[in-house]
Amino acid sequence: MADQYDSIADVYEQVKRIPIGLAETTTLVSALPDLNGKSVLDVGCGAGYYPRLFRSAGARRVAGVDAAQEMIAHAQRVEERDPIGISYELYDAAELPVMGAFDVVTAIWLLGYAPGADALDAMVTRLAANLVPGGELVVLFPNPDVDWDVLAGYSRYGMTVVGTGESAGRLSCTVHVEVDPPFDFESFYWPPGVVEATLERGGFTGLTRYPVVVPAEALAERGEGFWADLLACPTFAVYRAKLG
Ligand SMILES: C[S@@+](CC[C@H](N)C(=O)[O-])C[C@H]1O[C@@H](n2cnc3c(N)ncnc32)[C@H](O)[C@@H]1O
């Protein structure tokens, strides 16, 4: 499933600028611990959007890994053009070696791509293996409690999400991103409780879900009514937990 990202590596980050992407970033940032002086590993880092954000938030060391060669190549090109000290490597998250003992590990839109419960277990085990004891994990994955009828009206947030069936224990869908030119990718929603239980089995404690946050200027610009559906029924779920 990572290979679909090879063809959209150069356009993917436009998804962060549509209304839903603005809320995603603000919500993810609200769940982060203080990164000042910390080491951070971002697994499924894509084209490097979040690694760059973590560095600008004060992280001392940031590494990103992804299974899509073109995503990593794009991230490396940005780093070469404007070096800020981020390292990128090509790895499948389910086979991730120990790259270090990081203070914080993140996995943003990764866990839905685990093709089955065993692969999800393997990914969570590899995330834990890269954390210091007591280290923090922040994950964002497709919202298991989502209402598909409400999602059908999300064009105003810059994307449509259409269910396509079932695959390896997850609901599959096509995400159509309405930018110029538009692009599509496949996404997968685990049923309620599956990811949470896997994280607990993997040794994570204090699992906390963070509510959606809309940036203040976007709230003021479009008004509360515009954002109401997304706040009640987000496409994503953000959690933070501690190892041990
Ligand atoms: C929706 S993108 C999100 C990228 C990035 N986290 C972001 O939010 O900008 C999902 C990413 O997960 C990566 N991915 C999917 N399966 C993976 C796997 N098994 N191991 C590592 N990366 C994977 C894809 O290549 C893609 O870059």
Identify low-pLDDT runs.
none
Shape descriptor: globular
Roughly how many Å apart are the termini? 31 Å
Relevant CATH superfamily: Vaccinia Virus protein VP39
Which percent bin holds the helix content? 25-40%
Biggest β-sheet: count, sense, barrel? 7 strands, mixed
Rg measurement, Å: 17 Å
Strand-helix topology:
Blueprint: H1 19-31, E1 39-43, H2 49-56, E2 61-66, H3 69-81, E3 86-90, E4 102-108, H4 117-129, E5 131-142, H5 148-151, E6 159-167, E7 170-177, E8 183-189, H6 194-201, E9 204-210, H7 216-222, H8 224-232, E10 236-243
Parallel strand pairs: 1-2, 1-4, 2-3, 4-5
Antiparallel strand pairs: 5-10, 6-7, 7-8, 9-10
Walk me through the structure.
31% of the residues lie in helices and 30% in strands. It has helices at 19-31, 49-56, 69-81, 117-129, 148-151, 194-201, 216-222, 224-232, and strands at 39-43, 61-66, 86-90, 102-108, 131-142, 159-167, 170-177, 183-189, 204-210, 236-243. The protein has a 7-stranded mixed beta sheet, sandwiched between helices. A 3-stranded antiparallel beta sheet has the order 6-7-8, with no helix packed on it. With 244 residues, it is α/β, with parallel strands linked by helices. The chain has a single domain (2-144, 191-221, 234-243), classed as Vaccinia Virus protein VP39 (Rossmann fold). Helix 4 packs across helix 6 (194-201). It is built from 8 helices and 10 strands. Bound molecules: S-adenosylmethionine. Residues 1-2, 5, 44-46, 49-50, 66-68, 71, 92-94, 108-110, 113 line the site of S-adenosylmethionine.
